[in-house]
Write a structure and sequence with these properties.
By secondary structure, the protein is α/β, with parallel strands linked by helices. It contains ten helices and 16 strands. The chain has two domains: 180 residues, Medium-chain alcohol dehydrogenases, catalytic domain (Quinone Oxidoreductase, Chain A, domain 1), CATH 3.90.180; 135 residues, 3-Layer(aba) Sandwich (Rossmann fold), CATH 3.40.50.720.
């Protein structure tokens, strides 16, 4: 089958169309005919640094498509079902005609969206949901009277995190954005307040008269660490998804802060007992999209999956100026 992969880590120019074997599915797997994909920062990081082992490496995690085959032990899906999901970092990726995925991390595609647009939701939705309800241990309708600060609110995770926090909790949401267009975007997503992370973050939050109990550090955590420690409420909680070189964890001691890593691939990597939680939350997200409670975060893309289009999407990720999500169709 056709796929897009690379034989040597490095530049986006290394991405090319390759022929690879059609996946052989396991008992709990679905074989999905891929109709839409999204590009995420993890794709760029792996392409730049992860050398393939003996064969082209095919990346891609977000996908939406149609079930073409099912494993012997599959119970939740049948051939022809439309699905969406964020994949497994330990398996071959979704930048291909067909993709094998464990049914327990797969949700039913929102009926309101086509496959291309639906592919922009899974990875960011899982990340945001797990931050709110696993890392911060919030309950639905909880958080009343407390504040969440989202650093990097206009990116893919920030865009859906704002919406989920406003739809499912009582939190007041502050989002950071530095350009007029990104500030407009986070307001559209539902942020109650917007501050500029290029300025004095702690002072701007203090001027609002708020001390966030929760901070979602989505980007440049090391650059904002001192400000986070300054502005967060005592016994507050910090969750981060990026890869800072170093953090002064001791600085969190006087306020007795809790620090959480969020990595949405953990459940699939380790086959945790609660792996099916990702299926359940994706189904909730689909229901909320269809009900109009959540809106799509896709801002770019929609063309067919070609090597040229995928290279361009990787370069947009690298620019650091992408708002929301970018998607492509299938082959």
């Amino acid at each position: 089958m056709k796929a897009i992969g690379y034989n040597e880590a490095g530049s986006a120019d290394n991405l090319a169309v390759v022929e690879v074997a059609r996946p052989v599915i396991g008992p709990r797997d679905l074989l999905v005919a891929v109709k839409g994909i999204s590009v995420n920062p993890v794709d760029v990081k792996l392409r730049a640094a992860a050398q393939p082992e003996g064969a082209p490496r095919v990346l891609g995690f977000d996908a939406a498509g149609v079930v073409a085959e099912i494993g012997d032990a599959v119970t939740g899906y049948k051939v022809g079902d439309e699905v969406f999901y964020a994949g497994d970092v330990t398996r071959a990726g979704t930048n291909a005609e067909f993709h094998a995925v464990d049914e327990r991390i797969v949700g039913r595609k929102p009926a309101k969206l086509d496959s291309t647009e639906a592919a922009g939701l899974p990875l960011t939705s899982i990340t945001a949901w797990e931050m709110l309800f696993d890392a911060f241990r919030l309950t639905e309708s909880g958080g009343e009277g407390k504040t969440l600060l989202i650093i990097g609110g206009a990116g893919g995770v920030g865009s859906i995190l704002i919406q989920l926090a406003k739809a499912l909790t009582g939190l007041t949401v502050i989002a950071t954005a530095s350009r007029p267009e990104t500030q407009d975007w986070v307001r559209k997503m539902g942020a109650d307040h917007v501050v500029d992370h290029r300025g004095d973050l702690a002072a701007q939050v203090a001027d609002l008269g708020l001390a966030p109990s929760y901070v979602a550090a989505l980007t440049a955590t090391d650059q904002h660490w001192d400000a986070i420690i300054n502005l967060i409420a005592p016994r507050g909680q910090i969750a981060l998804i990026d890869d800072p070189e170093a953090l002064d964890i001791k600085a969190a001691k006087p306020k007795a802060l809790s620090i959480h890593w969020e990595f949405m691939f953990t459940r699939s990597m380790f086959g945790t007992e609660d792996i099916g939680a990702q299926r359940d939350l994706l189904n909730r997200v689909a229901e909320m999209i269809d009900a109009g409670t959540l809106q799509s975060t896709v801002t770019e893309g929609g063309g067919a999956l070609t090597a040229e289009a995928l290279r361009a999407a990787h370069l947009r990720q690298e620019s650091g100026r992408l708002i929301g999500k970018q998607v492509l169709g299938g082959f």
